[in-house]
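Hi Q.,

Before the meeting this afternoon, I wanted you to have the 2-amino-3-ketobutyric acid prediction in hand. No need to reply - just skim if you have a minute. The sequence and ligand are here:
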Amino acid sequence: ETCTSPTPQEHPRVLITGNTQRLMLSKYQKLNNMSILMSRKQYGTDNVILSDIKKPPPHVVSSGPFVYADVLDYKHLRELIVNNRVTWLVHYSALLSAVGEANVALARKINITGLHNVLDLALENCLRLFVPSTIGAFGPSSPRDPAPDLCVQRPRTIYGVSKVHGELMGEYLHHKYGLDFRCLRYPGVISVNTPPGGGTTDYAVQIFHDALSTGHHECYLRPDTRLPMMHISDCHRATVEFMQAPECQLSLRTYNIAAMSFTPEEVAQEIRKHLPYLKVTYNPDSVRQTIADSWPVRFDDSNARRDWGWAPVFGLEELVSDMLRSIREKRTNE
Ligand code: AKB
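Predicted structure with the ligand bound:
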């Protein structure tokens, strides 16, 4: 089977799987009326359907259609795609790095079997398919400073292995059958919503909440652990811009995207410009420190910049001001 009919660009019907809590812009964060990853404003409220196996927060419920979808249930997913005449699929369901190491069998099921379901359905229905990859798709033998798009990828986590598998499967189906597969490797994504846990970069969200509540953050990484990071709204915009890019502009199907790289000590210093009393103690945990030490410290995103015009807006200074402002605003409204 080959995807011959080009996927429509002008008026997509988008289905987003999973991670509605984690990857959403909070209503308190900048671009607050673009409250979900795929902008409902841009494509029409009813044309962007969010799905998850968990109930979404109230501001998501009120922002447009939300349905239950389990990526492991192929038949139900197919029904959703057909009944809703979906043309773009954005596949966010995944277990992250640290939680994946604690639940390898489940990570394999969700990250690999779930992805296979999505790839098959995308091919069957000629969908434009977006799957995020990550800095975690690299490993200790990859070049780390910077990591280019194309290099050795031998990650040592089930999360990384499943992401490399996803990159390769998508690219294979693109070359063999014409699947319109698109993949961005995200850095650690920083948003106001405290993540449910499970990532190696999560300290960089928690530190803001701790700074504003107790004034003390205990960090599970060493003070000098440098990792690529990005504000959620840059991540959101990169994804939308990449999904909209004409196929002829894409020389690759998997791109690194970068915005900034910082260490726990550097982000703490920047927060202290606003909250001088912030105290950070370091208690590196062996699982997450080992994972972080195997990841790139910087991303080379020159191909994304050249091919489809990627450029971040938020640096460390802007990220810190926005996070502190948004968390304060959220608290006064709760
Ligand atoms: C994680 O830390 O697992 C994620 C990622 C960098 O992919 N945030």
